[in-house]
Amino acid sequence: MTATSTSPAPLDILQHALKTIAGVDEEHFAMSYDFWQHKSFSKNEYYNEYKHVCKYLGFILDGVFRTYYIDEKGEEKNVFFFSQHQVVVSFQSFIQQAPCNYYTQSMTESQVLYIHINQLQELYKKSHQWERLGRLIAEMAFSISMRRTESFLFMSPEERYLQLVTDHPDIFNSIPLYQISSYLGIQGPSLSRIRKRISGR
C-alpha cells in the first residue's frame, strides 16, 4: 500500500465511528493520529488477496468493497460487502494473522483510512479503550459470519435482500445487480422479481 498523509476531516469521521463502536474518546483516539494512513483504491483493486495475510484494518470513507471466493467451477461467489463508514478487513486472516481464503476487492473508486496490525496492537497495550475495540472486532467477525450463515439457513432470498438494503442502503446505485445476485445466492431473474414485488407494495 502506498501511504499519503491524511487531513483532519477524515480523522474526525473515523473518531466518531470508533466512539460509536467502542467508546474510544477523543483523548484515547489522539494516541492513534500518527498511525492512520489514507489510500485511494481504484475500481477492482484488491485490499487483500487470496492466501495473503491481512495486516491492515481499514475504515471506508467512501466506496464499496466485496469479499469473495472462487468455487470449483471457477465462478466468483460474493460473501461480504463493506460500504461507507464501515470497517473493511479480512476478519479471520487479520485476527489470526494467517493466510486468507478469500479476496477482498474494491468495487468502486474508494477512499480508505487504514492502520497496520502492529500499530493497533501497540494501542491495545496502552489503552483499555483500544483493547476493547480489539475485542469488539473479534466479536464483530463472529457475529457477521454467523448472521451470514444463518441467513441461508433460516431466511428467504427476499428476507436476505431486505437485510442487505438495511446493512448497505447505498450500494444498489454503486455496483451491478449481478454482484448482488451472487451475494444473495440467486440468479438475476429472481432478483428482478424480488425488487419488482417489493416496489409494488
UniProtKB/TrEMBL annotation:
Matches recorded under InterPro entries: cNMP-bd_dom (IPR000595), cNMP-bd_dom_sf (IPR018490), RmlC-like_jellyroll (IPR014710)
Gene3D superfamilies: Jelly Rolls
Residue ranges of every copy of the Cyclic nucleotide-binding domain listed in the record: 39-126
Pfam families noted in UniProt: cNMP_binding
Descriptive protein name: Crp/Fnr family transcriptional regulator
